[in-house]
Amino acid sequence: MSIATAFEIVLAAVVLGLATWTIAVRETYPATVGFVAYGLLVALIWVRLDAVDVALTEAAIGGGLGGVVLLGAAARLRDAEAVTSERPGQVVRLSAAILCSLTAAALGIAILLLPDPAPSLALAVVSNAGATGLANPVTNVLMAFRGMDTMLEKVVLLLAIVGVWSLASDGAWGGRPGPRHEADPDGVLAFLARLLPPAGIVVGVYMLWTGADHPGGAFQGGAVLASMWLLAIMAGLTDTPPVSSRGLRVVLMAGPGLFLLVGLGGLFFASAFLAFPDEFAKPLILGIEIAMISTIAATLALLLAGPPERSPR
Length: 313
Prior knowledge:
By secondary structure, the protein is an all-alpha fold. It contains eleven helices and two strands; from the N terminus they run H-H-H-H-H-H-H-E-H-H-H-H-E. The chain has a two-stranded antiparallel sheet.
């Protein structure tokens, strides 16, 4: 047995064990920590499968921003857990276990029944990859072959932030999301908030730019930028902008707005909606990606900040 195979077996065993522990543990906070660790290990599995783009997204969302959301929710639920003794009964636990087992078995059977070789559009993608001028096949698929899906994903993010803002009370509408954070100016959090964001911004922009030809892209870069912004907010170095800010709304609309505008241009200058003229495909896609990274970073950070709670001033 090779070292690589042994490592993969150990990694699979750790992931399965951690997943089981995360489900079985009773307290919310340890389960959340286990889920974050699980997301990071799954990202490592994607790397072993040569799906680096998926690994970057999993690490940024599953182990990063998603973990922050769950940790915040767990912190708010900690006091409620201390005063309640209600636990699911044996019937509920058994039913959940049976349902999960049946779902896992159905997925396993579906995978085993797939034809060999499985039907794929990979050959069509590879044969037409040169039309965009991008060497990264994932970016090619997302921006050219599945452009409608990618655009609608950004619209969903925009609708999500509108939904979160709509939870604000009448008195806080138009104000700043979340509480005003204060941290020890000489503490570790403030130190990290001054040290990491400059490097994080460079990494985020690099992930955007290299995504044209190598693993990366606007979503991964935007998640990194959102993390750096949230770090500065939690350290009290900056504050969330008021949701009534015109500049903020322009940033939130930049990604889906430019994507839609370029898509409509395809009706007049190319063959169809969301089609790119061959000679301008790469600059148009890069322009959309640049607009999307700002939208993604702002949206993800503000989703975590929550609904407006304070006046704009």
